[in-house]
Amino acid sequence: MANKKIARALAENLRALGIEEIATEGESSAIIEALGGEAAGAEGEAGRADILRREAAGVEKCRRCALASGRTHAVYGDGNEYAEILFVGEAPGAEEDRQGLPFVGRAGQLLNRLLEQVGLKRSEVYICNLLKCRPPDNRDPVPEELAACRPYLDKQLNVIKPQIIVCLGLFAAQAILNTKESMARLRAGEHKIGDVVVIPTYHTAAALRFPSYKQQIYDDLCRARDLAYG
Q: Is the pLDDT score of 188 beyond 50?
């Protein structure tokens, strides 16, 4: 994880200087390899933002399922392409559909406040949903919609390579972990997909209805922060 932080800082410094891509031959390749090889490959670290922008543009034109006909905007994702922590919710709501950004309504504002309370910035994390289009009346996604959108989520995970996935809400947690367990049982357990830690927690929309959930979300965010940053 330390190597990833070094590589991320290096890439961000280069970007600040106006350098979007670096050659990976000769000595440059050796440096990347010494940092853990995480920037190697056809989709190197310096190109993450471009890859995600291209994917987002593709999602905006997507017609893989019927949800496309009712959307204002597709909602791909938002945040740091080098994020250690990636949040996955269920689907966009009305405000997200209007703005084309995830978690910008009341539930998103609560998430922002909770992130601040645990010492995290929204700009440090990445936020997305299982579905990239809003279901009618905010109903639960159906299997066909989940299957149509899953390649987009998998691409986000493969490009960003988070260390922690925080599942916001039972539906997202069950989909990511392929389980039917309750949120109480999921929160009590420890979960990994490969080397990635998965932390299920309540959706902030549920916390708006049941304020007691705020403390539990806060506790789960603290755990995510500590695992990611020590």
A: yes
Which CATH number is correct for 47-229, 3.90.226.10, 3.20.20.480, 3.40.50.720, 3.40.470.10? 3.40.470.10
What secondary structure letter does DSSP report for 140?
Answer: P
- In angstroms, the CA 149 to CA 209 distance is 28
159-to-45, 110, 118, 218 alpha-carbon distances in Å: 8, 27, 26, 27
Dig out the tokens for 226 from the structure: 């500590």
pTM comes to 0.81
Contacts for 95-100: CB closer than 8 Å, 24+ residues apart: 96/134, 97/71, 97/72, 97/73, 97/133, 97/134, 98/72, 98/73, 99/73, 100/72, 100/73, 100/74, 100/75
Is residue 143 pLDDT above 70, yes or no?
yes
Compute the distance between CA of residue 211 and CA of residue 153 in angstroms, rounded to an integer.
Answer: 29
| Token duo for residue 27 | 């000595």
Amino acid (one-letter) located at 183: M
Specify the higher pLDDT residue, 194 or 4: 194
